[in-house]
Amino acid sequence: MTIDLGALRRNVGTLRRAAGPAEVWAVVKADGYGHGAADVGRAALQAGARALCVATLGEALSLRAAIPECRLIVLGPVVEADVARAREAELELVVSTSAVPERIPVHLKLDTGMGRWGLSELTRAPAHVVGVMSHLASADCDEDFTRRQIERFLEATSAWKHVTRHLANSAGALRYPAARLDAVRCGIALYGLSPFGADPGGDGLEPVLSWTSYVAQVRLLRQGESTGYGRRFRAGAPTWVGIVPVGYGDGFRRDLTGTQVLVDGEPRPVLGSVSMDAFAVELRRELPPGAPVTLVGGGLLLEQHAVIAGTITYELACGIRSDPARARRVLVDA
Ligand SMILES: *Cc1c(COP(=O)(O)O)cnc(C)c1O
Q1: Which atom of ligand 1 is nearest to the CA of 186?
Q2: Which pTM was predicted?
Q3: Taking CB atoms and a 6 Å cutoff, what residues make up the pocket around ligand 1?
Q4: Considering only CA atoms, which residue is closest to atom 4 of ligand 1?
Q5: What is the pLDDT of residues 19-61, one digit of tens each?
Q6: Which band of pLDDT confidence, cut at 50, 70 and 90, is reported for residue 164?
Q7: Which of 173, 186, 107, 119 minimizes the C-alpha distance to 146?
Q8: How many whole angstroms separate alpha carbon 284 and alpha carbon 281?
Q9: Which domains does the chain have, with CATH numbers?
């Protein structure tokens, strides 16, 4: 697995140019969407991101140990018993209920239509409020509803212009100038993945992660023979297959049957069941073992796998596991 921090920095630059003068805050929850939170966080700050956002206190504390000096905002709930630890680590918290912790910077979160976290109204509290925020539910797919959320937020926060107002995620930052306000919280776009499930190049974004392996065994299936669990692929004619030592234990999901990977640079279909540690790919002809296989990268987009798996790039990226006992993770700065 290769993480291209140069691409990440360029994506931050692209977002800063698109959203400026709003600040770009880098969302690195879920281990930086599977890319490695500390590496990605550091690179994003170097490229001009002004804060890092995570979901949980635990994520914030481990990130704080890796990056002592940066604004670090916990987007999700933190129980009262943990507020002292958050204070000690100099975190900022997001508050979505009437229980507002004191002596720590907080962002009040208003629910404008996500129907998940958030206050139904902003009220003044005896607290150190540094921001007011909300979250867009469908900036990738529903313009009317997004415009309503933006209007509702602008209206509700008109008396809060002295604090940082922030609303946009990646899709909002890229498509809705009115949502940019003082800061945008970008996750998926940082990683060069499209919030719209489209080609990220259309928004000037470059994929940060690439994933390669190799054909470890080559075999000829005779007519009627099968490969893998459940015999879900049976050869209708003699078929060369390559076995690749990557599986759902690494995050190459079981529902990726039928997707394409690049073998020696050529798109070839994944056959049969993906197992925990291996999958089969149909070859055009006999190849020597060792042929390179690209699962993501070299023009093959995670978005294409998401279509086959019936999910979004967010979920695929978060599921990719860079357990050093199974996969080698390399940082480059291209
Ligand atoms: C995850 C998250 C984001 C980032 O969303 P992307 O679509 O990945 O840009 C922004 N804001 C909040 C509150 C989030 O939870």
Answers
A1: 9
A2: 0.97
A3: 27, 29, 75, 135, 169-171, 185-189, 195
A4: 187
A5: 999 999 999 999 999 999 999 999 999 999 999 999 999 999 9
A6: very high
A7: 173
A8: 10
A9: 2-193 (3.20.20.10), 209-332 (2.40.37.10)
